[in-house]
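Homework-ish question, so no full write-ups if that breaks the rules, but can someone show me the predicted structure for this set?
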Amino acid sequence: MRDAVPAQPNTCQGVVALHELRSHCGTCGLRTLCLPLGLDEAGMHRLDEVVTTRIRVRRKGMLYRPGDRFTALYAIRIGTFKTIVLAEDGREQVAGYHLAGEIIGLDGIGDDRYTCQAAALEDSEVCVLPFGPIDRLSAEIPTLRRNLLRILSRDLTREHAMMLLLGSRSAEERLALFLLNVAERYQTRGYSAREFVLRMTREEIASYLGLKLETVSRLFSSLQESGLIQVQGRAVKLLDSAALRRLVDRRE
Amino acid sequence: MRDAVPAQPNTCQGVVALHELRSHCGTCGLRTLCLPLGLDEAGMHRLDEVVTTRIRVRRKGMLYRPGDRFTALYAIRIGTFKTIVLAEDGREQVAGYHLAGEIIGLDGIGDDRYTCQAAALEDSEVCVLPFGPIDRLSAEIPTLRRNLLRILSRDLTREHAMMLLLGSRSAEERLALFLLNVAERYQTRGYSAREFVLRMTREEIASYLGLKLETVSRLFSSLQESGLIQVQGRAVKLLDSAALRRLVDRRE
DNA sequence: CGACTAGTTGAGGCCAGTCAATGTTGGTGG
DNA sequence: CCACCAACATTGACTGGCCTCAACTAGTCG
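A: Not a homework solution, just the prediction itself:
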């Protein structure tokens, strides 16, 4: 469960830095989701000057680990990440499932060290947002400053929803909500909301939802049984998302 | 469970604005915990110019509700608050337990509306931090800018820990962790870590920990039975916090 | 082809939830 | 001051949803 990758402790395995002569936020397909949202020409250009590096992370590679010195935020350009929180006693839980366009590493701002672990679920690529320069730039560009805070705040709200899920919903409701949430996020990225491929194993999904993998597996089967979804391993098709929604919203 | 206070829907019941001729962050006993942390004389003074209003919220009064327009953050000066997240289907869960010196309202930054509800657990008082002015000031004062981000980020980390608690810990571990956490926070505020009065009912604690009130009540009794704590309603004395810690940290 | 990882399914047990009765506390008005 | 009431808390008996343990299957990669 720990590192699937052989070893080299505390190294960013599978991480290859590459300097691009130009990486343009202004032409990036994700600019309407990402940090540059709403920036004008000039602002975009100045951001480009600061965001000069990308990192490739191969499947199962770690982007950062708890305790690593915080130097940068990362914008996911391609691929998918999970973030994991670790307890002192070795217990761990998937805390986030992050798609392209999202910013990760925000937990590191608090005490200059990352507090959780980010692992790529498939071969991925992130833009490095060096925190110092970004922060200084944000002093001059109100929109950028606002975007940063906005992203943090929305994460907070997302986690509130997650806490509600973990604290007061049944296993079935959790899975239904998870599927609807993923569907919605794929949709805002221009992909199908009806049909997608999950990048997590049953065990990772279970951990994320506060369940056990057997329970998740059973639930996939039973939702398929009742005709709400169609599952083939990690490929999921939502056949009746209205019914899924009803599963979640049944008032007590 | 909803509003214990008679009615006046969507009004800030029990809220009384009062302008103080001078409210000084620089002399506030909480300045080492709060937003002004690390600010120099000049910065402190400029913050003071912006933080001119305080609000009194009586027990069970709401400081803000979901959907209210976001205009300000609030620093708790005196008292205790809980924040509650609400689901569309009426379910609700206590998402936070906030002591003096903490900032609440951060969830409102994301979409210019608060997404959760803040209610006072006892007669309390907050400093109003009007967001626009604070934001503009943060452009000029790097420390203030940093503090804002830091507070947000730490909240994120705190919620990660909460997700781990809700997702992978037993009822007993949850309560033990809760008590240790509260003890620690009282300690950093200069109060006893051994003895304190909880400001939440059993039901609120249960909701916060993803349990039912009966379970929490039983756990209080059984922890007392085994000599780890002493309980008298909401007054708690930790008799053996090392043992509590061991309860939490038992590796699986 | 064998070893390994991921996923499915079944049988049984336990932890926490549910329902219900009773006890305790604190605020209010006579 | 005390009686009363409502909110809060405790405790017991029972139930059930999810976990645990375990066997088996399907796909993948060297």
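Now go work out the reasoning yourself. Hint: Chain B touches chain A through 52 residues (CB under 8 Å).
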